[in-house]
Amino acid sequence: MENSLASIENGNYGLAFGSGLAAIDAVIKLLGPGDEVISTSDLYGGSYRIFKRIFEKYGIVFHFVGMQDTAEIAKHISAKNQAYLGGDPHQSNDEYC
Hints:
With 97 residues, the chain is an alpha/beta fold. It is built from four helices and three strands; from the N terminus they run H-H-E-H-E-H-E. It has helices spanning 2-8, 20-28, 45-53, 70-75; strands at 36-40, 61-65, 81-85. A three-stranded parallel beta sheet has the order 2-1-3, with no helix packed on it. Helix 3 (45-53) links the parallel strand 1 and strand 2. The longest helix is centred in the N-terminal third of the chain and has 9 residues, at 20-28. It is globular and about 40 Å long. The relative contact order is 0.19. The mean pLDDT is 87.
């Protein structure tokens, strides 16, 4: 399946995870102390908890902002940003409308 996904997307590799949280966990584990992530403030509670309770202990900084507020997003853009998490519009609270 992973090879098929890579082929469909014209990529060299594809990865499949059992859940979105598992995928997020794998990506965030690529980061290190001082790296920053801009995330939607309207994200799944499990993602928020793993960011705050686990990954912040390792020096990763998370900025939770409304994705409609481009000025707020711009305030957090820096060379330290390593990931941008926009969330899932299907689970949103109208933040993407």
